[in-house]
Amino acid sequence: MDKSINIMKTTVDINRDKLLEFSNKKVLTKKELSSLFNCSGRTVQRKLKQWKAVRSYNNNGQYYAMLSIVEFDVSGLWCYNSVCFSKHGNLSETVAFLVCESPGGMSASQISDTLHLDKKSFLTFFKNISKVQRENISGRYVYFSVDELIYQRQKANRTRVENEISESRLTDIDIIRILTEKIQYPERDEFAISANLTKQGVQVSSEPIVELFKRLGIKKKLRVSGSR
Question: Predicted confidence band at 122 (pLDDT cuts at 50, 70, 90)?
Fold first, then answer.
C-alpha cells in the first residue's frame, strides 16, 4: 500500500481525535487550540471557519466552541462555565437582537441579567450600539429599537406596564389612609374605600387595596377592640 495513503489516513485519524477532544472540552481559546492541533494561530483561525465554530461574546471573545455541541436556549444563548455564546453573533449584534425583539424595550439590568454580564461594565457599551437607542424613564435608562414602528410599539407597551406598576404601588401614607378608612367604616369593601379616598383627592385604585387586605389577612369587616 502506498505510504502516502497511510500517512493521510493517520493524519485524518489524528485530526478526528483532536476534534473529539475539542468537543469534549466544550470551550477552548485559540492558544489552546494551537497547542492541541500543533499549528499556528492563523491555521487555527482557518480551521475554525471550516468547522463553523462559534466565538464567545464575553471573556473578550477569546473562547470558541464547536457548533455541534452548543445548545442554545430560547433566547439564542448558551453558557458553559461562565463562557457565553450567541447564535446572533457578537455582543453588539446580540444586544441589538434582544432589544429589538423585546415587547417593551429592555433596561440595562434586564440586558445584563439575560446575557449574564455585569451591568456596570457595559453601560457605556450599550449606548453605542447603532440599532439601539436609550431613553430615561422613571430615573433609569431603557433601550429601544431605532426602528420607528418598533420603537412606538415598545414605548406604548413600556408605558402601560410602568403605569400598572405605579398604580399598584402603595405608599406608607396610602396604607395608613386605607387602614384608617377600614377601621372607621368596617362595612366598606375595597371599591368603596377607593371611591371615598378618590373624593378626598387620593388616587388609589381598588386592586392594590385588595392585595393589601390579602397580605394583611383583613376580612370584609375589621373589628376594633372595644367595639360592639
Answer: low
pLDDT at 164: 67
Q: Which residue in 76, 72, 132 sits closest to 108, CA to CA?
A: 132
In a domain? residue 203? yes
Report how many domains make up the chain: 3
Q: Cell numbers 450600539 correspond to what residue?
A: 129
In DSSP terms, which residues pair with 64 in a beta bridge?
28, 55
pTM across the whole model: 0.66
C-alpha to C-alpha distance for 40 and 60, rounded to whole angstroms: 20
Task: For residue 107, list its beta bridge partners.
Answer: 142
Distance CA 144, CA 55 (A): 26
Percent helix, strand, coil in the chain, to 5, is 55, 15, 30
Write out the residue range of the structural domain in which residue 24 sits.
3-69
